[in-house]
Specification:
Blueprint: H1 2-11, E1 16-30, E2 33-41, E3 47-49, E4 53-54, E5 60-64, E6 68-80, E7 85-97, E8 105-117, E9 120-131, E10 134-136, E11 144-147, E12 153-161, E13 167-177, E14 183-194
Antiparallel strand pairs: 1-2, 1-3, 1-14, 4-6, 5-6, 6-7, 7-8, 8-9, 9-10, 11-12, 12-13, 13-14
């Protein structure tokens, strides 16, 4: 009887999914010639559970190239019960983007966090930002867009709904969109979602 009761209680739990991924990804080309092609790293992978849990994915120390340098990239996903909630976190300690056609972008202390529970999602991004050496104050509002000299744009705290979830949110801490379809760089991207909220 006890086993059956435990199984019944478990069936009422809401599966939670999260992914602390893409502290760094980039796809950049110039006149059709690839300059940067970086797959998401490091990556917790998709976490799906109805239990309280926390990932322990190791941080990546750094990525360095003449066009992009990034230090200490860390992803994490935490789930809790009563109420069910999933929080995904992606952090980047320092980054410098120096790509053709846009001013140099310096980012430090970048943290992107979406949290989801049935009926409610929240997201936030914190960072220190400089563009062409000039400090830029960012409001913290979702989807803050900064036009760049040369035609590119920088989106800070980009927030998008998670697909296939009852309640979910994806946050891209920094999303650089290059002009003329030249590609993109994403720093601190992460996703949280709740499922079976109506059951």
């Amino acid at each position: 009887m006890c086993g059956a009761g435990a199984a019944g209680r478990r069936s009422l739990l809401k599966p939670q999914t999260g992914r602390g991924f893409r502290p760094l990804s980039a796809h950049v080309a110039l006149i059709g010639v690839p300059l940067l092609e970086i797959e998401p790293q490091p990556d917790t992978g998709t976490v799906r559970t109805a239990d309280a849990s926390a990932t322990d994915t190791p941080c990546s120390a750094e990525y360095n190239s003449p066009l992009l340098s990034v230090q200490k990239l860390c992803p994490k996903v935490t789930t809790t019960l009563a109420p069910g909630k999933v929080t995904a976190t992606s952090t980047v300690a320092q980054a410098r983007i120096g790509l053709p056609g846009v001013p140099v972008i310096d980012v430090s202390g970048l943290t992107a966090v979406p949290s989801s529970e049935c009926g409610r999602t929240t997201g936030s991004t914190t960072l220190t930002l400089k563009i062409a050496g000039v400090p830029v104050t960012v409001s913290g509002d979702p989807n803050t867009e900064i036009p760049l000299v040369g035609g590119g744009r920088l989106i800070v705290n980009e927030q998008l709904p998670s697909t296939g979830a009852d309640a979910g949110l994806k946050v891209n801490g920094v999303h650089l969109v290059l002009p003329a379809g030249g590609g993109e760089v994403v720093l601190a991207s992460t996703d949280s979602a709740m499922h079976n909220c109506g059951d």
